[in-house]
Amino acid sequence: MTMLKNELPRIVTKQIPGPKAAKWIARRGEAVPSAIKCVYPIVIARGEGAMLEDVDGNYFLDWVGGVGVLNIGYSRPELIEAVKKQSERYFHGMFNIVTHEGYVALAEKLNAIAPVKGTKRKTYFANSGAEADENAVKIAKAFTKRPNIIVFSGAFHGRTMLTMAMTSKKAYAYGMGPFPDGVYRAEFPYLYRKLEGIPETEAISYYIKSIEQVFEQASPAEFVAAIVVEPLQGEGGFVPAPIEWVKAVRKICDKYGILLVADEVQSGFCRTGRMFASDYWKDADAQPDIVTTAKSIAGGIPLSAITAREEIMEAVPCGVIGGTFCGNPLACASALQVIEIMEKENFEARAVEIEKKVMKRYQKMQKKLPVIGDVRGIGAMIGLEIVKDQESKQPNPTLVSEVVQECIQNGLIIENAGIYGNVIRFLAPLVITDEQLEAGLDILEAAIRRCM
User: Fold this and answer.
1) Helix axes 329-344, 101-113, angle to 10 degrees
2) Cis, peptide link before residue 147, omega less than 30° from 0
């Protein structure tokens, strides 16, 4: 069998989907709710590195990576062996019932590397990013004895009832209300689309005032338990939180006794050139109080984590947190291996290398293609904002949808993002080869040109 991880995109069928994939997609339509939206006519047969092969033998380069799950790539042999070894001992041991070594070892590791305030940290596990975010709010309320939280425009925190309320884009919550109370929203510093007339030098102050307006108009500061921030918004359009703004938010939290929560579900595990994006916050003396992680933590096995200093964690009443599958032994074994590989092979540096290559190419494209309005990101988490023209900045989601489908027909999987659906996100596995990266950039640029 071909070593897929070193291959380049290759389409062997007349069109996508091929005949075998088309049959499976038809079966999906009969068996699975259409509300689980999928615009990709691809049925995976196997995956290695940054590549996948479909059931018809087509090779695709994956720039989505399970929406940030596959930083370490598909089918890493060391992960397979770690999970296999654990499976031969036991599949499951609910941590509320029995202690298992992997849970403790992984918690110790995250306590050592997570950039949260405090020298003594504690970690516990859940199953998904939404669960991690919801648990972070529970912890913040237990510690502060306050009922409310502040989130931001453009935010995505999940699809549970609470995290649907926290999420800004209500297309993910259409018809699902009413939602829990006590969730209030301020403006995120989306500098590309800041209000006209506000100079760049004054923009940070403007967005900080938005938080202060929440205190005035929605919840007094003394009733706010936490401010929850994505260091780099994912679904919101790959919009980085400016460090000067983060420092100002940290000061507000310190002033009013509010906990700062960094939602690192999509940005964690070397994606941004550091193990966590909030490592940059730490460098600026603006560490979060709680960090939530998921997605790439276990290389594809469901797992998430919540990390905070001991005094915060120990404020939660006994028996309140935990769950049946939280910190599953197979997932913990995989996660320990993921972190070991990332540290040993310096995935942080690789993300920076990828950033340089992609940003250089994107900026060249921006000069030549008037539909590219903005290029932004941190590390290998990069957004390309598509507009009708650079002067008006009018969003162009239709073009993005066309480019997504054009790329698929040529062997590249990309995904949109953004509050207007007009941002092309780059989330390729960090194990992508330079040859694959160049091939993907060529396919993307050609697709934009054809669809303009």
Assistant:
1) 40
2) no
d(Cα 131, Cα 135) in Å, to the nearest integer? 6
pLDDT band at 238; cut points 50, 70, 90: very high
Contacts of 52 (CB under 8 A, 6+ apart): 4, 42, 44, 45, 46, 59, 60, 62, 74, 413
Q: How far apart are CA 117 and CA 72, in angstroms?
A: 27
Place of tokens 């030549």: 368
Contacts of 12 (CB under 8 A, 6+ apart): 18, 56, 57, 58
CA pair distance 401, 434, nearest whole angstrom: 26
Q: Which two tokens stand for residue 205?
A: 């102050």
Q: Which residues pair with 417 in a beta bridge?
A: 423
Give per-residue burial for 225-243: e unless 16+ CB within 10 Å, then b: bbbbbbbbbbbbbbbbbee
CA triple 376-382-384, angle to 5 deg: 65
Mean pLDDT (the chain, rounded): 97
pLDDT score recorded for residue 86:
98
Whether residue 66 is predicted with pLDDT greater than 80 in this model: the reply is: yes
The residue assigned the tokens 């420092």 is 247
Helix axes 329-344, 347-368, angle to 10 degrees: 70
- What is the Cα–Cα distance from 383 to 423, expressed in whole angstroms? 6
Q: In terms of DSSP H, where are the helices of 184-289?
A: 200-217, 243-256, 278-283
* Residue pLDDT, tens place only, 363-391: 999 999 999 999 999 999 999 999 999 99
- 184, 173, 172: which is closest to 147 by C-alpha? 184
Q: Which of 163, 156, 158, 159 is nearest to 180 (CA)?
A: 163
Is residue 337 within 8 A of residue 78, CB to CB? The reply is yes
pLDDT, tens digit, 9 for 90 and up, residues 108-154: 999 999 999 999 999 999 999 999 999 999 999 999 999 999 999 99
